[in-house]
Design a protein that fits this description.
Pfam family, one: GFO_IDH_MocA
Oligomer: single chain
Order of helices and strands: EHEHEHEHEHEHEEHEEEEEEEEEHHE
Keywords: Oxidoreductase
Structural class: alpha/beta
Strand content: 25-35%
Distance between the termini: 38 Å
Strand order of the largest sheet: 17-16-15-14-7-13-12-9-18
Protein name: Oxidoreductase
InterPro entries: Gal80p-like_C (IPR055080), Gfo/Idh/MocA-like_OxRdtase_N (IPR000683), Gfo/Idh/MocA_oxidrdct_glycsds (IPR050463), NAD(P)-bd_dom_sf (IPR036291)
């Protein structure tokens, strides 16, 4: 770290629509405490193009070269889930702090192994559960803690996602890996994983869960080739839960042509709603917060300015916004040895929760969550 600026090396950040290029590089550019010093992709051409576009001094195809470079303090892994284990271990081998996107691994066992490896190496580790850094969610969390709704009785999430191919029954070649459940990247692990993490962030842990996981479209056409691929991963997810404080939680995630996303929280003294502005994805979207108490009509509760970290304010809502908010937490953690940002332990807990939902769906019975 030089002059309190953290040098970041991003693995997986080409300019052709990758998550690293869409979210991480613009987020890092907006934050004065970071400097992107290296980028790595599978092709030197794309690595060099990204480096030139974002004025990054080093471009690699070898992830270990990036991780071991002396200017790199933090390695960001922004590639497909099946590559997470190998690349996180590459960063750990180089002794660098590491940020990995969620899901952390293809399985809970893989995620737990990465947590152990990171803790044994003694480096700081962070997970891309950026909804926890969303200003609106942080505000609602504080409203709940301050008793705005009284005791929380019920929470309902309506989540209609236009990104997955169950309705259109076609998919781009680059995303076909998401149809294979063994790859650990699908509607359940990504969409439900981020949502359930956000709900437990707001409400605390769950004591019981039940669920339905369905693959409603088993044959999907590949746009570029016309071939048909068989899907084994869930495309429709229903989760019911009871929070440790007794609130009944329901969430349905399904595929539609037009997106819709809202969360309603009902309590003994009032109600709160989170209404997505973009209706795109929970971990990316910005939200309108509305509240009502004592029989009053719902009214908007503007998110106070202090919840939006000033360093990220130049960014417009979109993929980079909440990622920048999360990097701001990471900067504080690295500089002051605090623990605000979600880490591999947070991610492993989400993996374990998903396992319980999966087992509940397989058996048709509710599962008790051990704490």
């Amino acid at each position: 770290m030089k002059d309190d600026r953290i040098g970041v090396g991003v693995i997986g950040a080409s300019t052709d629509g990758t998550w690293g290029g869409q979210a991480h590089l613009p987020a890092l550019d907006a934050l004065p405490g970071f400097k992107t010093v290296a980028v790595s992709t599978t092709r030197q051409t794309s690595a060099s193009e990204t480096a030139e576009r974002f004025a990054i001094p080093h471009a690699f195809t070898d992830p270990y070269e990036l991780a071991s470079h002396p200017d790199v303090d933090l390695v960001t892994i922004a590639v497909k889930v099946p590559e997470h284990d190998r690349l996180v271990r590459t960063a750990l081998q180089a002794g660098k702090h590491v940020y990995c996107e969620f899901p952390l691994g293809r399985t809970t066992e893989e995620a737990a192994g990465l947590l152990r490896a990171a803790e044994e190496r003694g480096v700081r580790h962070f997970a891309g559960l950026q909804a926890r850094a969303n200003p609106a969610l942080a505000y609602v969390k504080d409203l709940l803690a301050d008793g705005y709704v009284g005791d929380v009785l019920a929470v309902h999430c309506n989540y209609a996602l236009p990104l997955f191919p169950a309705r259109s029954k076609q998919i781009k070649q680059s995303r076909t890996y998401m149809l294979d459940e063994t790859n650990g990247a699908n509607q359940f692990t990504i969409t439900a994983g981020h949502l359930l993490d956000g709900l437990t962030y707001l409400l605390g842990t769950f004591s019981d869960v039940s669920g339905i996981l369905a693959t409603q479209s088993e044959r999907i056409k590949v746009v570029e080739t016309g071939e048909t691929v068989r899907a084994t991963s869930p495309d429709h997810v229903v989760v019911n839960a009871i929070s440790a404080n007794g609130a009944i939680v329901t969430a349905q995630i399904r595929n539609t042509y037009k997106g819709s996303l809202s969360i309603e929280i009902n309590g003994t003294e009032g109600d709160l709603t989170l209404l997505s502005k973009e209706n795109f994805m929970f971990q990316i979207d910005t939200f309108i917060v509305k509240g009502a108490r004592g029989g009053e009509d719902f009214a908007e509760l503007p998110v106070p300015a202090q919840y939006d970290r000033p360093a990220a304010s130049p960014l417009q809502p979109g993929p980079a916004f909440n990622v920048a908010q999360l990097y701001a937490q990471i900067y504080s953690d690295l500089l002051h040895n605090t623990n605000r940002a979600p880490d591999f332990r947070t991610a492993a807990a989400v993996h374990e929760l998903l396992d319980q939902v999966r087992k509940a769906a397989e058996t048709g019975t509710a599962r008790k969550i051990k704490r």
